[in-house]
Specification:
The protein is an alpha+beta fold. It has seven helices and eight strands; from the N terminus they run αβααβββαβαβββαα. It has helices at about 1-30, 45-55, 65-75, 120-130, 145-155, 185-190, 195-205, and strands at about 35-40, 80-85, 90-95, 100-110, 135-140, 160, 165, 175-185. Strands 1, 2, 3, 4, 5, 6, 7 and 8 form an eight-stranded mixed β-sheet that branches.
């Protein structure tokens, strides 16, 4: 009798463990994070995206409504996505596609949902689906918040590019902001830093660097 009870108990424990595994798998599917493409200001979730966009980034580090609308309408390299979980807006992920690399321009998670690894999952999904190097800007690590942000990206496999970099202004009356670039392919970014900066300045910011005057005798 005791042997039968032990066998039954063992069977129930195994069944419970199996059910728990199935439950965790189903829960993961239910909570799966999705990238919902936004093509215009009239698209679903755009109001959520723009509200969080203006909350998460100061004016000098983001576009105006008109600027964002322009990129959505006319720039095929620009990709804006709402992060959606269980049909609920939880954040956004905006990036640019170039021939040799991807540039993540902005990413943010709804404040009430931070600390739930949504940003980490979004970055991991993006990394798993991209074959080219990834580049993005971060603030100079001269304060605890910026240092924590950089540490977060380092844990995801990104490194700081050693070259000096500055973010061009989104509006004409602003100044360049000292920043750093981070990447998951450091050798590529170090070797192609000038190309990356020129592409960002020209295509993302529509900014022209002042060219030094050529010496006399070299002008055409």
């Amino acid at each position: 009798m005791m042997i039968k009870l032990n066998f039954l108990l063992l069977y129930l424990l195994r069944l419970l463990k199996h059910c728990f595994v199935i439950f965790k798998y189903c829960l993961k599917i239910v909570q799966m994070l999705n990238f919902h493409r936004i093509n215009c200001v009239g698209c679903t979730f755009f109001p959520n995206l723009y509200n969080l966009y203006t909350l998460a980034y100061p004016p000098q580090e983001r576009r105006s409504w008109a600027g964002l609308e322009y990129e959505l309408n006319y720039e095929k390299r620009f990709c804006a996505h709402a992060l959606v979980q269980n049909d609920k807006f939880v954040g956004f992920f905006n990036y640019w596609v170039f021939n040799n690399f991807y540039y993540i321009e902005h990413i943010a998670v709804v404040p009430a949902l931070r600390g739930q690894n949504i940003g980490t999952e979004a970055m991991e999904i993006f990394k798993s689906q991209t074959k080219l190097p990834i580049v993005f800007e971060v603030e100079i690590p001269d304060n605890p918040v910026a240092q924590r942000r950089i540490h977060f990206y380092e844990k995801l496999g990104f490194s700081i590019v050693t070259h000096d970099y500055a973010q061009p202004p989104y509006e004409d009356d602003e100044v360049l902001l000292p920043m750093k670039l981070m990447t998951n392919e450091l050798d590529f970014a170090e070797a192609n830093f000038t190309l990356i900066r020129e592409m960002l300045y020209e295509k993302v910011y529509h900014y022209e660097e002042e060219k030094p005057l050529a010496p006399k005798g070299e002008l055409n």
